[in-house]
């Protein structure tokens, strides 16, 4: 089941999956509580197993009405079951119906195939985020 969650609900998975187990309180994003931001979670029973945060942010020269995906993470014990794709497709439906023009993200190089399967395209060369790893910027037009 996919539903909206709070910013606080995202912190443990962000810490464990994306930030090598650092203090979850250090895994907050500046846009977490901005107007228009929403957080989604995929639940297997009562367990939160996949998360994503979506907020209004335009990408460079792509024009207005952009949304950014950040903090996409799946519990390693539940990875590969399709939950991440379902969560993103759920978000895409919400974004399209709200008038967004596109979505973009900093995709880890290791996750770029996942995003390509969902229809995302590359819009940057590979780059490194210090302490986090190699990434590409990727986007999907609506």
Topology:
Blueprint: E1 2-5, H1 7-18, E2 38-44, E3 47-56, E4 66-74, H2 83-97, E5 102-108, H3 112-117, E6 121-122, E7 127-129, E8 133-141
Parallel strand pairs: 4-5
Antiparallel strand pairs: 1-2, 2-3, 3-4, 5-8, 6-8, 7-8
Descriptive notes:
By secondary structure, the chain is α+β, with helices and mostly antiparallel strands. The chain is 23% helix and 36% strand. It is built from 3 helices and 8 strands. Strands 1, 2, 3, 4, 5, 6, 7 and 8 form an 8-stranded mixed beta sheet that branches. The longest helix is centred in the middle third of the chain and has 15 residues, at 83-97. The mean pLDDT is 96.
Brief descriptors of the model:
alpha+beta, 3 helices, 36% strand, globular, 8 strands, Aminopeptidase, 142 residues, eight-stranded mixed β-sheet
